[in-house]
Write a structure and sequence with these properties.
Blueprint (H helix, E strand, L loop, with lengths): L14 H16 L5 H16 L8 H4 L5 H12 L8 H12 L5 H10 L1 H11 L2 H13 L5 H18 L3 H14 L1 H13 L1 H4 L4 H13 L1 H11 L5 H22 L7 H20 L6 H25 L4 H19 L12 H8 L3 H11 L1
Pfam family, one: INTS15
InterPro entries: INTS15 (IPR027844)
């Protein structure tokens, strides 16, 4: 926290002040037909009293540091603890709009998003504040400004950097696992985003992959729903998010195949089955001949094979590790074919790369024939 003294004309932020403002926000949000004057008054009250911001200028983000962030966050969480997660989720979401996003204040929004929301999410995770978490994800996804993915990414990065700096990734994963019981939407959103982050996913502890494997096998429908929730299926970004998640999980499987990590192999085996279950659930909501279904299957197959091929070329040998990786990949293809994941969906499949491995491998030979037929 930066030491800064607010202007003498600005009231000092206190726990009671925040609670009082939140109470007024709640009463305002419960009105069916809110008065414009009340809305204007509320914007002014929240902006001036709560955040000590009066001017829209470049120093606005710095001005946020004047407030005691922890007092604010503690008060918000204590206030939201009184709500029922399911019954009051819409009210919570509406209150988020009023508290964090005063009308026509883009700079203020950016400052709040940058400074306050990640801290709120981090604290909510620590305290397992279900009402906040349940309401927060749909609110973020709905997106004020149309960039929900970047907001979620920012919060994820804040959470990740905090736990990485503290060297507590296993603890973070444990919190996600606990949160899955009370707030699966939030938990299932954070894990894919965490895995999608290039700078983080290679550092993931085995516990994170175990968690992903458990969720994908035990409740693939919830994971699929969350991925569909994050971005609408009609949005190409949704396809990209799904492909990135599947791609990175698959690549992690291959990385472990190409290593001698005996401890990870049971986890990777379960993770592969989970990947297939996820693809099958996602495919259920997509027309059989849809380009989206073809894209998911062919991209997954192509990317995985290319990763194996890159490794094979680097060692210039068809060694035991490559054989193991190809064995596992062929098993996924075989199960996928049997379950309808790939049939008629691999028109763009890179058969040249595939043939590099197929000759002399009975299962791959059989799969290649099926794909050609």
């Amino acid at each position: 926290m930066v030491d800064a003294k607010p202007d003498q004309n600005v009231p000092v932020l206190s726990f009671n002040l925040v609670m009082d403002i939140l109470s007024k926000v709640e009463k305002f949000c419960r009105q069916e037909e809110p008065c414009k004057n009340v809305q204007r008054e509320l914007d002014t009250m929240v902006e001036q009293n709560l955040f000590f911001l009066r001017a829209s200028n470049d120093s606005e983000a710095e001005s946020l540091k004047i407030m005691d962030e922890h007092v604010f966050v503690t008060a918000v969480l204590k206030f939201f603890f009184q709500f029922d997660a399911d019954a009051d989720a819409t009210l919570c979401s509406t209150m988020f709009d009023r508290i964090f996003l005063p009308q026509e204040r883009l700079e203020f929004r950016q400052a709040v998003l940058k400074q306050i929301l990640p801290l709120l999410m981090l604290t909510a995770i620590d305290l397992d504040c279900v009402p906040v978490l349940q309401a927060f994800v749909p609110w973020m996804i709905r997106g004020c400004g149309g960039q929900p993915a970047s907001w979620l990414k920012g919060c994820t990065q804040k959470v990740m950097s905090t736990y990485l700096c503290a060297d507590e990734m296993d603890e973070y994963v444990a919190r996600l696992a606990k949160m899955n019981t009370s707030c699966p939407t939030f938990a299932h959103t954070l894990l894919p985003l965490m895995i999608n982050e290039q700078e983080y996913f290679e550092m993931l502890p085995l516990s994170a992959l175990q968690l992903a494997a458990d969720w994908l096998n035990e409740d693939p429908e919830s994971v699929a729903k969350t991925i569909r929730l994050c971005l609408p299926p009609s949005d190409q970004s949704s396809q990209k998010l799904t492909l990135n998640y599947v791609d990175k999980l698959s690549w992690l499987c291959i990385v472990h195949d190409l290593s001698d990590d005996e401890q990870a192999r049971p986890v990777m085996s379960k993770l592969r089955l989970g990947i297939l279950k996820l693809m099958m659930r996602i495919n259920e909501g997509i027309a059989e001949k849809s380009p989206t279904r073809k894209l998911l299957a062919s991209t997954y197959a192509n990317r995985t094979l290319i990763k194996i091929s890159e490794y094979r070329n680097s060692v210039d040998a068809f060694d035991q590790k490559v054989t193991r990786a190809v064995d596992h990949f062929s098993q996924i293809l075989q199960v996928g074919i049997l379950n309808g994941c790939f049939i008629g969906q691999l028109q763009d499949f890179n058969t040249t790369v595939f043939q590099t491995f197929a000759y002399g491998h009975p299962l791959l030979d059989d799969i290649l024939q099926k794909l050609r037929s």
